[in-house]
Amino acid sequence: MSTIFIKPQELEHYKSTTILIDVTWHMPNANRDANEEFNQKRIPGARRLDINAISPKTSGAYQGKLPDASTFAKACSELGIKSLEDIIILYDTQGLFSVPRAAFTFLVYGFKNIKILEGGLPRYERVGLELETSTPSAHQPSDFNRVHLDVSQVKKYEDIIGAIKDPSNQVIVDARPSQLFKDGHMPGAKSLPFNQLIESDSDSFKDHDQLRKIFEQSLGGPEQFEKVVKGDVRVINSCMAGITASIVWLALFVLGVRSSVYDASWLGYSSHPNADIVKE
Question: Which of 81, 111, 127 is the last residue of a domain?
């Protein structure tokens, strides 16, 4: 099982050797400004990465695309990151929403020591730890300038077509709400709304046994999920635009399963004129 999460009380142990980054992103209809919220309140010493600002997009909305290597390397340099070995702790202000996407981005670009603050800022505040409300401190950029994408974890439209044509050793998991799935989905895709994985009264995943049962139910039973665990069947996670697919990716990650994300997700797939769409 993965130990990617750290508890808020453990932050003090890491502070002198890590870079702490707020990676909050809000849905467009939330009418919230994550950058302004960071300026008003943050964990002491935190830096800010706007994952929407570095994502290629054709409009003002988040398009779910990973930044290209040069853009991400530049963002890392501006954050003061010096190497792929740096210990980096990520958090968001929702608890567990945009932080999985940020963790996915860092990991597929080769970073070795990525951690996630369990429960994010809400949990940090609930346990009574210190907040910083003054103007964010400036930090020294680094000369970091190179990352390399692990393409095996990032799927494209052609990969989805391959999975649809030959589902014998791969399965598409759709993290969108059930109604959106019924309104239209990829052939053979399995529905697993991301919020089923998260405790309703907290800011974290359900326990490992519960997560496993949810995946078993969604993927067709214990035997099918065991094939996923063993690597005989590979999971491709999709959603609307890449954010919540990364939540499912992270849930599998903590169970010890390495999966991938369809970067463009439903927005990308459904925009293709010849895309096969199933409606229920």
Answer: 127
E-strand spans in the chain? 5-6, 18-22, 47-48, 87-91, 113-117, 154-155, 170-174, 190-191, 234-238, 260-262
DSSP 133: -
The residue among 14 and 92 whose pLDDT is bigger is: 92
List the domain range (segments joined by +) for residue 70: 5-127
- Rounded CA gap, 249 and 173, in Å? 10
What is the C-alpha to C-alpha distance for residues 51 and 60, in angstroms, rounded to an integer? 13
- Residues 105, 107, 108: CA angle, nearest 5 degrees: 70
Q: Please give the average per-residue pLDDT across 196-212, as a whole number.
A: 92
Nearest residue to 243 via CA among 269, 259, 262: 262
The 10s digit of each residue's pLDDT in 34-78 is 999 999 999 999 999 999 899 886 654 545 589 999 999 999 999
- Two tokens, residue 128: 């009574």
Number of compact structural domains in the chain: 2
Instruction: Give CA–CA dist 67/157, Å, rounded.
Output: 17
CATH number at residue 122: 3.40.250.10
User: pLDDT by residue (tens digit) across 162-191?
Assistant: 999 999 999 999 999 999 999 999 999 999
Contact 185, 174 (CB under 8 A): yes
How much is the mean pLDDT over the chain? 93
Based on the fold, state whether residues 123 and 161 are members of the same structural domain: no
